[in-house]
Amino acid sequence: LAPSLPLQEDFVYHWKAITHYYIETSDDKAPVTDTNIPSHLEQMLVILVQEENEREFGETGPCMEYLLHHKILETLYTLGKADCPPGMKQQVLVFYTKLLGKIRQPLLPHINVHRPVQKLIRLCGEVLATPTENEEIQFLCIVCAKLKQDPYLVNFFLENKFKSLASQGGPNAISEDVLKSQDSLSADTGQSCQPEEPSEDEPSHQMGDLSTSLENLSVTALPEATVVRPNQDYNLVNSLLNLTRSPDGRIAVKACEGLMLLVSLPEPAAARCLTQSTCLCELLTDRLAALYKALPPSVDPLDIETVEAINWGLDSYSHKEDASAFPGKRALISFLSWFDYCDQLIKEAQKTAAVALAKAVHERFFIGVMEPQLMQTSEMGILTSTALLHRIVRQVTSDILLQEMVFFILGEQREPETLAEISRHPLRHRLIEHCDHISDEISIMTLRMFEHLLQKPNEHILYNLVLRNLEERNYTEYKPVCPEDKDVVENGLIAGAVDLEEDPLFTDISPDNTLSNQEWLSSSPPATPDHPKNDGKTEVHKIVNSFLCLVPDEAKSSYHVEGTGYDTYLRDAHRQFRDYCAICLRWEWPGSPKALERCNLEAAFFEGHFLKVLFDRMGRILDQPYDVNLQVTSVLSRLSLFPHPHIHEYLLDPYVNLASGCRSLFSVIVRVVGDLMVRIQRIQDFTPKLLLVRKRLLGLEPEGPVIDHITLLEGVIVLEEFCKELAAIAFVKYHAASTP
Prior knowledge:
The chain is mostly helical and 740 residues long. It has helices spanning 7-24, 37-53, 62-69, 72-82, 88-102, 111-123, 133-149, 161-169, 176-189, 210-218, 235-243, 249-263, 268-276, 280-293, 301-306, 329-348, 351-374, 379-395, 399-410, 426-434, 440-453, 459-470, 517-521, 540-548, 567-584, 609-619, 626-641, 645-652, 665-680, 686-697, 710-738; strands at residues 489-490, 493-494. A hairpin with a 2-residue loop joins strand 1 and strand 2 (493-494).
């Protein structure tokens, strides 16, 4: 047997066989699969891999030297671009992909590799639904994977616009105007791009005449459907962006994965180029906007709430297989899964790229598309757009996108609110007003959105809604303690709390009467020497009893029904408080209230728009529907769980000395109880009716004939439960503070 040829001879033989085909053949219409080219290319790959396996790692063998020195990749690129014979582009893409994937030594730093790779990248995504799409995406993804391994290599792929024009139009075709406009462009984008040498094998007519190149330089944003490349800057991103529009879902998802790898590269120059010189921001936001606008206006808010969690890569929804289909489900899933992709992309992205992407979503989608929908006057429209806002508030996980969403909803203000400037941020004002909307559905949906917003790990949310108004503790009045207050409190019960109907404050009140400031104030119990106010903490059993005794015995119904005790609230409060503490750890809140001596107690106190609306609704608890009451009390209990001393004092301490004209959560409830005591007198069989309503609500009694005063009776039950919940929260928070 003849000895097998040395690898290099074998390699050269296969390459020469390919080049001879082009010299000898006259029929260039026959498809490449009818020739021996694919098998010669395959053999060349086999030889390169074998050669690398036989050598020390990092040592370049003669076959690889030959490939690099003879610019084989450049030649293959030219053949692939011409697609001669037909199908050659596909073969070239496969060869490049396997070469980069199978060879372990770093090839991309070689100019004779990264330059043809870059040119081949430009051929990808030019035509949608082309037969080579699959090979194109495989090739682009292997390049992305290589960059992920060695991020510094990305600098070879940030083309300098001027150089790429030179290589395409030939140096003589560029006038001084282009040079000037080019200088200003590179100054804008601040690129530190690798220069690309003019290449000898590209015909000079590729770019067309000078006027088109000048036009192209001035183009900035890309409409979604076009595939022109105005910015010859980061072609890897541009090609992937075009492929995200592929009608084949698998290809689009692979392209999204490639972009995910590129945005996460830590190189600052690449991040800058990504956001300033490609259409990535536009693609994300334009598609979000298009998918949002494609939602049918009649989507049921309940469906928006309940549609299962969406994962962006798995957006393969089949209407036929779905038992729980509803009109618009396909469109809703498409929108939510693309929102999820934007969220994950920003989460993974390098910091400056993430900020730029999130700002683009804020300006182009939140403000451009969502805000007009949320500000409209049609009730149906408000309900649907608020349900969608609620859904994306729940769904967002990226801190940077969350920050932009919070600024969109609440604005950036951090100084205390005043009644005069209540509508400074129009959307915030409108959404808070919607918590007290004539439509109960809109009120409940907006309150739920705020409830979920408050659970997000972002310090600005609570500060903007509540804390900025409590900063100076100017809801308190600083009184030195006097000894004769001692007898006011016995066993922690407020004197007369149980017999409120005998309290002079509550005689003869009809719901329309309003109290003067002075009378209203006296409804909050005075401080006693047992618990001076300076430390902001009152003995816990006194606070707990104050809340538990607020609703008088004749209006209580829970002790007649099993399992409605106070201990279930304790368990819930303990778990929720632990979760809130975990969220707030990073915010470095103080452990005790700001010292009164350092507070500006003279400043006029305004609880802020958000608490004002919640307190107003709380004051109407006996006259509004059960579902609304549940939602209002739910938001208030969420607020009172936050481990900030001022929130604790203002919402959970009945003994705080309220300054003139101020109200607290406790004083609002005291008002409601006073109103209730007057109204109970007018209802026959109040207690049996109350018990029946409670049993019906719990499902222990079948629905029967309508009971009169049903709204009032349901309101009393919510009020009793809410007081138990507040008592439990106060107890849990006190114990957490006193145990080290």
